[in-house]
Amino acid sequence: MEERQVHVVEIKAPVEDVWAEITKLKQIQKPMFGTVLESDFKPGSRMMYRSEDGKRVFIIGEVHEFLPPKRFVHTFRFTNLPETPTLVEWTLEDKGGVTRVTVVHSKFVDQKKTADSVRTSWVDILANIKAVVETGDVPFKTRLMLKMMGAFMFMLPKETLRQNVPELKGKN
């Protein structure tokens, strides 16, 4: 049976501000655990969340749909797990000065490790987006975690090294 996860948060800000945070390119995205999003957002093109220095790639996918500032659909694969890609659908709705962000993560068939990991991380990511858009920063606990992750980057699985990601072989 295919699992489907739905995560929702309401943010006191215009849709455009929330969209800008979610789709921010080539700069640190604190809500996404300090990664950097790289994509041209054209359907069929690659997207990835990578380390600031570009040496590590944590999530790789393909853009399916990009309709600013309302909808972003892409595949999703953790580079350190030998599982097939899943599907992430971001939907933003204006609810009179409040933006409702809904993330539907689906197409889990045999990706148990991915499903288990994102079940809790989406909750944190959406709370972090809310904090950044409403207050300008992520909560203290997240800032502390980002520092720890940076300090222990050298201990991450070798599969996260850019040169070891199959989808990036032969690419800079």
Structure description:
The chain is of the alpha+beta class. The protein has a single domain, classed as START domain (Alpha-D-Glucose-1,6-Bisphosphate, Chain A, domain 4). It is 26% helix and 34% strand. The chain is built from 3 helices and 8 strands; from the N terminus they run E-H-E-E-E-E-E-E-E-H-H. The protein has helices at residues 15-22, 112-135, 140-151, and strands at residues 3-11, 28-29, 35-39, 46-50, 57-67, 71-78, 86-94, 99-108. It has an 8-stranded antiparallel beta sheet, covered by helices on one side. Helix 1 packs across helix 2. The protein is globular, with a radius of gyration of 16 Å. The mean pLDDT is 90.
